[in-house]
Design a protein that fits this description.
This protein has 2 domains: 144 residues, 3-Layer(aba) Sandwich (Rossmann fold), CATH 3.40.50; 190 residues, 3-Layer(aba) Sandwich (Rossmann fold). It has 13 helices and 12 strands. Helix 1 runs parallel beside helix 10 and helix 6 crosses helix 9. The strands form 2 sheets. A 6-stranded parallel beta sheet has the order 3-2-1-4-5-6, with helices on both faces. By secondary structure, the chain is α/β, with parallel strands linked by helices. It is 40% helix and 14% strand. The mean pLDDT is 95.
Length: 354
């Protein structure tokens, strides 16, 4: 017989990274605030995540360093000393996060199912959510369902607070007038699209609209080199912001854009949260798993083709979370089909505005 539990009065959520996954977890947070308004909610996360999310109503943040050393885990235990949560939502399954879970005193500790729980995750929790083939955001909502929330009552919107001051700061970086953002780099090089193809689509956008191209990216040498390479191939000058922005500024720049072109990377979810349409490029993983949520209408998805041509397997027979770890996967996406998605995006936005 399935155990029944009363509504929790105190909830602790652990999600430290990555930024895109953290944004996807905000739908869970919104659900918890709506369904358990009297419960205290504590989110243990990293400094960069804290900076991106700003102030979320009704959420207490506990920030831990990255990477964590032994003394940091001991400090976390000291911070939480004397507290006991009704429930811990262990929404990350890395070994580092698992050690964080061990530091949280909680009556119930709910984690991922055995298929998604990695690195001994199941040894750090007392309950597991139900596995389904679903988007990562829906997976996070599974924690709300484990607390008794009906699926139809779960929030299906993401949150990245972008204040007027943030938009103004973003406008100082981009200049006046309409612009389109291209964020070429993902955290893993296998997800990146070829430089010359990004440039070809950017040139198409400029020819069709006259909009400026704004290039975004992180500050690592690899990301900056990729963005610089794209900028060098463009027919018209672009605004190159790679390595020049904070994470909140990137979110603000994307929020003010006409659209975003990017592979499987965190800024895709910044765009989805701020209402900016996304042309997402997917072949390493399914767009239905990691793409902009809750819809992927402008995505170009060649995952099935990559499974067939690169792995030599039937896409209907591989696991939902299977990745195609090969650069050749992204090369299956062509310039004409991405340009076609841009043309569709532009036409639909024009129709809505008129």
């Amino acid at each position: 017989m399935k155990a029944t539990h009363s509504a929790p009065s105190s909830i602790c959520l652990v999600r430290l990274s990555a930024l895109g996954d953290v944004v996807l977890a905000t739908a869970l947070v919104s659900t918890l605030r709506a369904q358990f308004p009297d419960a205290s909610l504590t989110w243990i996360t990293s400094a960069m995540t804290r900076d991106l999310l700003g102030e979320l109503p009704g959420v207490e943040f506990v920030v831990v360093p990255r990477p964590m050393r032994l003394r940091d885990y001991l400090a976390l235990r000291q911070t939480l000393r004397g507290r006991r949560f009704d429930v811990l939502l262990a929404a990350q399954a890395s070994f580092r996060a698992n050690l964080v879970h061990a530091c949280v005193p909680a009556r119930r500790k709910i984690g991922f199912d055995s298929r998604r729980g990695r690195e001994l995750h199941r040894w750090f929790v007392t309950e597991q959510i139900t596995y389904r083939d679903e988007h990562l955001a829906e997976g996070f909502l599974g924690f709300a369902e484990a607390l008794g929330v009906a699926p139809e009552k779960c929030e299906r919107r993401l949150t990245v607070p972008v204040a007027a001051a943030d938009l103004a700061a973003g406008r100082k970086l981009t200049g006046e007038g309409k612009y389109f953002v291209i964020n070429p780099a993902a955290s893993k090089p296998e997800r990146n699209w070829p430089v010359e193809r990004y440039a070809a689509v950017a040139d198409h956008i400029v020819r069709q609209t006259g909009w400026r191209i704004v290039l975004t990216g992180g500050g690592s040498a690899v990301e900056r080199a990729l963005v610089d390479a794209v900028a060098a191939k463009l027919q018209a000058p672009a605004v190159n912001l790679a390595g020049r922005t904070t994470v909140r500024q990137i979110a603000a720049v994307i929020a003010g854009a006409e659209g975003l072109l990017a592979p499987d990377t965190g800024p895709v979810h910044f765009a989805a949260a701020t209402g900016t349409p996304v042309i997402g490029l997917y072949a390493v993983a399914r767009s239905a798993l990691t793409g902009p949520w809750p819809e992927q209408r402008y995505c170009v998805d060649r995952y099935d083709g990559a499974v067939k041509q690169v792995l030599g397997r039937d896409p209907r027979a591989v696991g939902w979370h299977m990745r195609v770890h090969d650069r050749r996967a992204m090369e299956l996406i062509t310039v004409p089909e991405v340009c076609a998605q841009f043309d569709r995006l532009r036409a639909e936005r024009t129709a809505v505005r008129t």
